Structure prediction request, 426 residues.
Amino acid sequence: MKKSTFVTKEQLDHIVKEFPTPFHLYDERGIRENAKALKEAFSWNPGYKEYFAVKATPNPFLINILKEYGCGCDCSSYTELMLSDAIGVKGGDIMFSSNDTPAEDYILADKLGAIINLDDITHIDFLEKTIGHIPETISCRFNPGGLFKISNDIMDNPGDSKYGMTKAQITEAFRILKEKGARQFGIHAFLASNTVTNEYYPMLAKVLFEEAVRLKKETGAHIKFINLSGGIGIPYRPDQDPNDIRVIGDGVRRVYEEVLVPAGMDDVAIYTELGRYMMGPYGCLVTTAIHEKHTYKEYIGVDACAVHLMRPAMYGAYHHITVAGKEEEPCTCKYDVSGSLCENNDKFAIDRMLPKIEKGDYLIIHDTGAHGFSMGYNYNGKLRSAEVLLKEDGSTQLIRRAETPADYFATFDCFEIGKKLLQNHL
Prediction:
């Protein structure tokens, strides 16, 4: 199978005249079509809401597109809450899911009226002491422990995860919260990451739906919503089949009717917190080949590095690469595609078969729309790239400028050394 790009060589020739590489490019048309499909897939549930995982792609221009389709924000930090507030996402449109949470984060979440999702039973007292009360609507994160399997395949190991409460803890948490004034409850869980199977969400839903029935029976708590969180993945490799969100939505519906409806819980809303699925395929990192090296291996050096996309260096993650304009040429050359960091793992591909690459070729690194730019950093004094939106009409819009040395040194501006840097070099 082939992975197609949403931008052509001819378009890139025009774009780079205004925005030099490297930059992250996003596909407005794809984002919109995907958001619409998700909404339709869960339209059977009147209370359904997607809370986009801000950490995946914290760009207000992109989140505003999702907002048009009724999406809220899943936030995990003070600054993500600030971002949501700035674009007009407030109150119940914010889900605040955090762990080892600082007091100031809870204070702002409460001020904005966000739904707070507690990661641990000890956070109940911490939250009450911090904000002075327990919100009437609150959620708890559940971790069933053990291994999570689909068929006979182990998908992940929740028992090794730092997130969530045990069955006994969440039961006690509901009782305590109810005594302290909570009136409406939510249940949240995240059991596997980047699953490329239509079975994951329905199986997760069954775990949570059965837990909700048990909790209602044992604690008398009113379950307002069940948050299936994220975990729906994308096909990074060309031989992987994508998930079918309509099949997934229908699978969750069947489990809902099997478990919740007979228990008299047919008013429970379904929430999701998708990040990678919402944005991943609709972003790419565009970089230019600037060097070639012939030693024990063949190397292509590009003007991007792990600062712009950490996943291959951090996880050994696969990201497909297309050489713009050479989509139909045979992949006869084996390359390591590398960046310029002083780290040997700064490689976007190892032993990758690609067409013959010339200096000046554009390399399109696929599926960077989530956990791409957002995981950037400044090691070696490297600067984060621009983010550009390819609009539906073919025009482009700068949605984040590239960093400059002034940005890098900005946090020294209150010191003499910082003033000298800014005066002498910038």
Q: What stands out?
A: The chain is about 30% helix and 25% strand. The two ends are 48 Å apart (CA to CA).
